[in-house]
């Protein structure tokens, strides 16, 4: 009888501990929108000067540097990420602020594709320890020019219907890293490398979701290839209070127009 009661008591304690643990984490959702009153940008046509037969085989290529959904003004390809509640740019999350399930994550192969003379995805996000793989399924050759402070310089030629794998795993690098194809100079993209799991890229509706974020006071930052929301000050992010199970933010205005 005593043994049975002990087992029941242990199970009850485990259930309470599990419930308490769930209260420490939340999902953060939001939408990034182009400001009301501002004229919506429309993608222009790219000047295709090389391998036209292939590159234009599915129609004109459009400039994807600014993509805004005309139905809801949602901005695509904005990288949204959390930061500690600290104005110092060197501030890092503590181990206690990283969800326990993240320890199960294995380094991934992050793919950049180029099926028809544009990069897919144009904006790539990765974690420290991941490896970049560049695919070329097309019938023409490409190259992949990449120059960074911490992740080396690369400029491999990628023959048609072959892949190239970056020789070293990605290491921490705060600035965005641009990449391009010198053979087709209109082809550009960017990668952001994070040392934590709290980041996302907005979809075609401008929506994003960050799961298993720690509850409490933090900061949230928004980056687009045309700059940071809030300019230089935006590097530190805006204050945010996260509460479980879900924190749904109000739509965030972000004018991602190219700076003059």
From TrEMBL:
Membrane-crossing ranges are none
- Keywords, ordered alphabetically: Signal
Where in this chain does the entry annotate a coiled-coil region?
none
The highest taxon in the source lineage is: Bacteria
Q: Where is the signal peptide?
A: 1-19
Know the name of this protein?
Answer: Rhamnogalacturonan lyase domain-containing protein
Instruction: Identify the species of origin.
Output: Gemmata algarum
